[in-house]
Amino acid sequence: MSEPSAVEPTAGRSLSQELQLMTEALAATSRQDEIFHIIQNAALRVLKAIGGAVLLLGDAGSTLNVAASQGHAEGEACVWQHVPSDHTTPAGVALMSNQALYFEQQNDLLEAYPQFSKRADAGTPVARAVLPMYLDEQPLGVLIFDFQEPHDFPRVERRFLPILAAQCAVALGRARAVQNLEAQVAGRTRQLNEERAALDAFVDYSELIGTETDVSVLAQRAVEVLRARFADCSGGYYGRSGTRWTLRSWTGDLNERPDVLARLHPELPSDMPFISELLSTREFIFTERWDAEHMGTENGETYGTVAAYPVIVGPVMEGFIVLGLKDASEWNERDRAIFRTVGRGLTLALERSEQSVRLAAQNAELEARTQALEALMQLTQELGTDTEPLTLIQKAQELTLDLLPPGFAAYYEPQDHRWRLLMQTGDAGSAFLQAAIDEGFPIGHTPSFDVVAQTGEPAFIDAYIRDIDVSSGEANHVAAHATLPLLVEGQFRGIFNLPIFRHHQWTAADRALLITTVQYLGLVLARAQSYDALAQSNRELQASNSELEAFTYSASHDLRTPVRHVMAFAELAQKALEKTPNDKAQQYLGIVKQGAQRMNALIDGMLVLSRSGRQELDMRPVDLNELVTQARRDVEAEFGKHPVRWHIGELPQVQGDRDLLQQVVSNLLSNAVKYSSQREVSEVQIWSERTPSGWRVCVQDNGVGFDARYTDRLFGIFQRLHSERDFQGTGVGLATVKRIVLKHGGQVFATSHAPSGATFGFTVPAGR
User: Fold this and answer.
1) What would the pLDDT profile of 555-578 be if each residue is shown by its tens digit?
2) Dist CA 685 CA 253 (whole Å)
3) CA torsion 222→228→229→232, rounded to 10°?
4) Which residues contact 515 (CB under 8 A, 6 or more apart)?
5) 442 preceded by cis ω (within 30°)?
6) Handedness of CA 542, 544, 547, 550 (dihedral sign)
7) Do 306 and 300 form a contact (C-beta atoms < 8 A)?
């Protein structure tokens, strides 16, 4: 059920009378819903409209949304919800042009906007008025009134309806201003340390300006407050007119002195002494014993003292209030406080409108920066999974186009003296332009690309110059463009080009987004190149390792036959010498057999090493405690009765190949006992440590240690740091340990405590 009208209808009223009543009703309210109710009731009642709607601009300024409707069936007004504020709808056209639209017949609307024919039916309004609402030259929204029958909008109605829209805008602005002003006044009043009289004056003035936003009205009320406080004063407000100053508002007493008022109206120059002082000091002036001749003013001799207050908004002085006291020769502190307070009130009101504009701009910039950051985060995720250069470039094009007005993206590289297209996202918008793109642009005759390639600096063009790069007519639909160099490892690679089909001013956020995107794209392409080079090196290394392992395995097998022959013939020679003893010959043959046995041991070690490299890993959970137990039994059997004192800590379970890891543990424990076997008792300690990436397993002995200068040789094949006489061995065991551990993704290490032992160990990554 609708609310009762705030202005009850009375037969015989003229439109001007209705307008007067509506204005009085609007002045009595500051609530937005009541304002819309009054406006709609007035139009529906006076013009016999069947329905009305109020559409307001959304926060982003791109859509109009229904704020109120009356006379429509439930849900009927939703056709106006979220309509674009551009030329595609009558509401958008009216708002963009600041001109009322009148559609007297249904065909008028359908011819202008054919898309409405899809919604036309028997209940569709036949006539319609669309009225823009502006406040301080800023668009607020539109009023829409619908009529069931064809409606001829006479001249008087075409005057009445724009006034109705203007009144609605003023009332709406006043309602918003009251809320904003109350909040700002509350903050400002806390900062005032003036006398109680100044606070009273400020409160009074705040009440007066609480419903106004027009600068001239605010200034007039300011001088009226001063006139009410100082009965013997005259004054006014001068506003900026370029480099001169014009009287905009004045106290009522000057109306009774037209001769004085006429002399005050001409524009004042900025080089007048007291105006120059205001501009330079930007501080209020209290002048005792006013000297009109010295100050360069006329008719100032009747004032005992004069004060001026500069109204400064941001960095600019927009105007000043000037007030003269006739019967006083000086300003007391209370009067100064009142005058300053009124000046501050006017400044506050003007700052409020400026702050609204700045806040809107800041919000737009913040939104753009937020979108840019989100796009860069998405770009980071998208580009991190691919290494194909053109695929990476295409993804960067798609993401940047999502944040820009309609257009397309193209990537070019120099080939055969032309800029050749390698990747395009989006339609070029013209078959002629697409043909030119496909053909390629000549290097040296395409300024938009050539300059960027030569300087290495991006170019952001707000208004594209026709015919600069292509023949006349091929790119007339391109309004703006951005062109950026793609650098990979500091070297120029190509051109990242973004033509836009409508006028676009490249903001700081746009520039930062595109520059960062293309720079990041260059880094990703450099990384992809590094990956390719690394993969190729790995393939070559793997092939080399395979050949080496095959050679080692083959050589080991091939060496066994001659060694076996040496052993066999040495044994036959020894048996032959048993019949004819020869001690010297027996000694020599013994040396030959020992050499052959050592050669067999070396061959066995090489085969073990080769198999450890070629063997596929059988990954499964492995308990290192079980491996140590088995290795300990093997070592005790190997070294017989030599006493060993074991110190074994709790060891972890890891992922690995059990048989290969058994070789690692057995080799390390065997070496620990072997190199400490000259001690009375071998002390062997085994423990593990948790690391950020996995486990560290250590084996420490109390043996002879080693020379730390040769640590890097310990794990090389056939490398030995002790003589064969002191400690037997082939020099293959630690090399085998290293190969197995590296194959598991770990590392080997060794630390000498000579002459009291050494620590050997290995790491195993977690989760393998």
Assistant:
1) 555 555 566 656 666 666 667 666
2) 108
3) 110
4) 458, 484
5) no
6) negative
7) yes
